[in-house]
Amino acid sequence: MQSLQHLFENNKAWADRIEREAPGFFKKLSAQQAPEYLWIGCSDSRVPANDIVGLLPGELFVHRNVANLVLHADINCLSVLQYAIDVLKVKHIIVCGHYGCGGINAAISKQKVGLVDNWLRNIKDIYTMHKAELEALETEAERQNRMCELNVMEQVRNVCHTSVVQDAWDRGQELAVHGWVYSLRNGRVKDLKVSHSSADQIDNIYALDMTDDLKDK
User: Which of 77, 101, 148, 160 is catalytic?
Assistant: First the structure.
């Protein structure tokens, strides 16, 4: 079995460097976390959330899964959302996909990968919704890149459609949802300009009637 000693050595070097640069950092960090941002990103090892936006540990709450999906039956993702909004009081939720996403590419090229195929069926649904636009593009690379963008846009909508987010907006909590795409080629982030900060900005059918809660009280 391969030894992981080098990882422990890397960890010690990293911790020592942080403590030198900011004495007392870990003591302060261990007392509380108060991030302003929730990052919902892809599990891809080439997309390190904190590093991309230059934030230290404790400044970014992170949830990652294959192809950065937000599904209404995914209790893991919904629990992260609820904790981030209700307990940590984050002010921004960033859904960040990335060009060259293996999950996206596997889904639209109909690769058979395994159990994850069931998860990626959601990507195929998005492809079907935008089939005319995607198939009008000339190259497969263009289709893949556009699908990465369309997927982020759909996941932003999914975040906004959750009762957790709409409850926060209804009680006047400051909260905005953003959609970004990261480029593996140059390390830059692209803002897709699909930010939402109120229920007025989502499709009416998904807007929950919060007056029902008041009737029950």
Answer: 101
For residue 101, indicate whether it is catalytic.
Answer: yes
Is 44 annotated as catalytic? yes
Helix axes 140-161, 116-129, angle to 10 degrees: 100
Answer yes or no: 160 catalytic: no
pLDDT the model gives residue 209: 82
Residue among 169, 112, 108 nearest 142 (CA): 108
φ and ψ at residue 203, rounded to 5 degrees: -60, 135
Instruction: Based on the residue annotation, tell me whether 42 is a catalytic residue of this protein.
Output: yes
pLDDT in tens, 25-55: 999 999 888 999 999 999 999 999 999 999 9
What single-letter DSSP state applies at residue 83? I
Report pLDDT digits (tens) over 144-195: 999 999 999 999 999 999 999 999 999 999 999 999 999 999 999 999 999 9
- Which candidate, 20, 29, 100, places its Cα nearest to that of 60? 29
**Nearest 5°: phi and psi at 92?**
-140, 135
In this prediction the pTM is: 0.92
Q: What torsion do the CA atoms of 25, 26, 29, 35 make, to the nearest 10 degrees?
A: 70
pLDDT of residue 119: 95
Name the catalytic one among 17, 46, 72, 121: 46
Q: For residue 93, with 0-12 CB atoms within 10 Å meaning exposed, 13-18 middle and 19 or more buried, which class applies?
A: buried
